[in-house]
Design a protein that fits this description.
The chain is an alpha+beta fold and 176 residues long. 22% of the residues lie in helices and 19% in strands. The protein folds into 2 domains: 39 residues, no CATH class; 90 residues. It is globular.
Length: 176
């Protein structure tokens, strides 16, 4: 009989703000301007690079998260975009990790959504994930008009009667 080895996870480290290479980005912008690409391609590349100058980048031992804030709507709400990738560049999909990232970098009462876009708006060029949040004009978190209204986590003690079809869920703290 073989025993499964329990995978040892590194402890989660706090996020630290990192300096983005502003000079390197400015040099790339200059290089694009001097290239012999079409004006349309140059414009898109420069716009993309200039956006990098406005973001905050945070890292821990698992993830790098770029946060951008845009206030373009007439109602003065702020759109917040979290671009998340693993440090090792591998695919990631641990809901609890994303919830923790949102909590640590925005706040526990902020809500964020992950959008599965129309194919015409699809961006899929890297193992990178995107969460979108909104901040009200007064600086408070926007609450989305969809989703559950009450908190419910680990159902072990609630499911003794099997009303949740004996659902399985790891206990909090077991994710790493």
């Amino acid at each position: 009989m073989s025993r499964k080895k329990k995978k040892l996870m590194r402890p989660w480290e706090s996020f630290q703000k990192v300096a983005y290479p502003v000079d390197e980005i400015k040099e790339k912008i200059k290089m694009v301007r001097e290239s012999n690409q079409s004006e349309e391609i140059k414009e898109k590349a420069i716009q993309s690079l200039e956006t990098l100058l406005t973001i905050d980048v945070w890292k821990n031992n698992y993830y790098e998260v770029a946060i951008s804030r845009h206030q373009e709507s007439p109602d003065k709400t702020v759109e917040i975009h979290l671009s998340i990738k693993r440090i090792d560049k591998k695919a990631a999909k641990d809901w609890r990790h994303f919830q923790r990232i949102k909590n640590e970098l925005l706040g526990e009462e902020y809500e964020a959504i992950e959008l599965y876009p129309a194919e015409s708006r699809l961006v899929d060029v890297a193992n990178q994930y995107h969460l979108w949040s909104i901040e009200n004009p007064d600086g408070t978190p926007f609450i989305f008009p969809v989703g559950f209204q009450e908190r419910l986590t680990y159902m072990g003690e609630y499911d003794s009667l099997g009303i949740y079809n004996n659902a399985k869920q790891r206990k909090h703290g077991e994710e790493n």
